[in-house]
Amino acid sequence: MKYQSYTLKNLHQIKLLNDLPDEIVDSIKVVGQVLPFKSNNYVLEELINWNNFEKDPLFTLTFPRKEMLKPNDYKIVKQCLNQKELATAVSLIRAGLNPHPAEQMEKNVPIFNGIPLNGIQHKYRETMLAFPSKGQLCHAFCSFCFRWPQFSGIKEKKFALKNADLMIGYLKEHPEITDVLFTGGDPMIMHAKAFEIFIDAIIKSGIKTVKTIRIGSKTLSFWPYRYLTDSDSDELLDLFKKVTDAGFHLSFMAHICHENEMSTDAFKEAVKAIRDTGTIIRTQSPVMQHINDNSENWSNMWRKQVSLGMIPYYMFVARNTGSHRYFSIPILKAYDIFRKAYMKVSGVARTVRGPIMSASPGKIGIDGIVDTDKGKVISLSFIQGRNPEWVKRPFFAKYDEKAVWLDDLKPAFGKSNFFFNEHDVLLKN
Ligand SMILES: *Cc1c(COP(=O)(O)O)cnc(C)c1O
Ligand code: SF4
Fold first, then answer.
1. 238 has pLDDT over 60
2. Helix/strand/coil for 300
């Protein structure tokens, strides 16, 4: 299949939209001014169920919808369409959508030889994130994307690593880093040759402390032809093989929200092609209202992933950014969905952890509800902490059925702070 992308500019070329009510198409144009829209022929033709588009999870994952904006914001953008006030209105609305959650910009960018390394994040001791500059797009965008600001031309906030030298220098100074995770956007949007520069730099550096290279990608479900028929598919797979042959563990972190994303032959063939290079595929996704907020979907996904040789890894809670109002579900509902799905799968799929809030202090798991003499409390613990000492220490929040994020939770048992707020020791970069 040959890749054809669609954005607002060529929206009119999507023939499948012709049969939809005008109102729906109008709302794509309006909300698409604020939240990024991009899709492609594979997602549109093979993944979306157009007969039931109103309720179809892949339609909602792809297209901006009216309900994603506050009614008043929607009205404002609609009135400003094609007017010179549009840009101002849009940037005001975007600023109100918490474009930089979890304080990524302030806290995670390391300093090396006195310069901030803008294409790198180092938050958890063992793992460094690398954002290659050519990998800062995706083959299609998710309407809930937590990296939406970088696709919206909010320039100064864009992470980007132009070459590998600084990354190698940083790795040499930080022998505690065992994992380099390439992310974006989607690093698999890069040409194999562009990605090879970073991979070769690591292999040739002779750094012994890095053991695992990870690639965070949505391509398996948004563009599996990346591994089948793109002009550099073979080159890319050879590169994966080169990594595993060099003795690294290569882990492909596949972002998959819904079982329908695993329904095509192309998906299965791509999984096989990647696995044939010695790469292990792990899977992760947030749990989102209107997309995958039911346990059936999760247990089906995990079972199917295992049967295709993939390893379920993380279920996340929707981040507090973008159209959080539309996608978020209470953390206790996420917990309920996780538990019901986990119950239904065998041990080989219980490698998955969740639900997890990837928040400023760390990745915090919701472990359960505990009945105490003083009433019900929520039990939580860190899976990753900005301070590694925080990991796996149970802590308790007041029972709250409405809380959708860490900020909504209050410490239980009359405490004024959670333990990690009391001594907020930052990891020294
Ligand atoms: C999730 C995440 C990682 C990876 O965490 P693992 O638990 O090792 O998968 C690394 N860095 C940041 C900033 C993250 O959010
Ligand atoms: S694949 Fe990830 S980075 Fe790309 S649009 Fe979706 S959520 Fe955003």
1. yes
2. helix
> How much is the average pLDDT of 93-104?
81
Longest Cα pair distance anywhere in the chain, in angstroms? 64
For residue 276, the one-letter residue type is D
For the record, the structure tokens of 92 come out as: 């005001």
Q: Which two tokens stand for residue 188?
A: 């698999």
Give, for ligand 2, the residue of 138, 150, 319 to mutate: max count of ligand atoms closer than 8 Å to Cβ.
Answer: 138
Q: Which residues line ligand 1 (CB under 6 A)?
A: 108, 121, 123-124, 127, 129, 181, 358, 363, 384
In the predicted structure, residue 270 carries a pLDDT above the cut 50 = yes
Domains and CATH numbers, the chain: 5-95 (no CATH), 99-278 (3.20.20.70)
CA distances from 397 to 16, 214, 363, 373, 410 (A): 47, 33, 16, 15, 5
Question: Exposed, middle or buried: residue 280 (CB in 10 Å: 0-12, 13-18, 19+)?
Answer: middle
Contact yes or no for 198/167 (Cβ under 8 A) = yes
**Taking the CA atoms of the chain, what radius of gyration do you get in angstroms?**
22
pLDDT for the residue numbered 184: 87
Ligand 2 atom nearest to 255, measured from its CA:
1
- Helix H or strand E segment including 363: strand 362-372
Q: 22: which residues sit within 8 A by CB, 6+ positions away? A: none
User: How buried is 319 (Cβ within 10 angstroms: 0-12 exposed, 13-18 middle, 19+ buried)?
Assistant: buried
Helices (H) and strands (E) in the chain, counts: 16, 15
Listed in sequence order, the residues at least 6 apart from 251 whose beta carbon sits closer than 8 Å to its beta carbon are 212, 213, 214, 215, 279, 280, 281, 282
CA atoms within 13 A on the CB side of 31: 26
- The pLDDT of 101-125, averaged and rounded, is 82
Cα dihedral sign for 74, 80, 81, 84?
Answer: negative
- Between 46 and 428, name the one with better pLDDT: 46
**Best of 129, 159, 357 for a ligand 1 pocket test (most atoms within 8 Å of beta carbon):** 129
Q: How far apart are CA 351 and CA 243, in angstroms?
A: 24
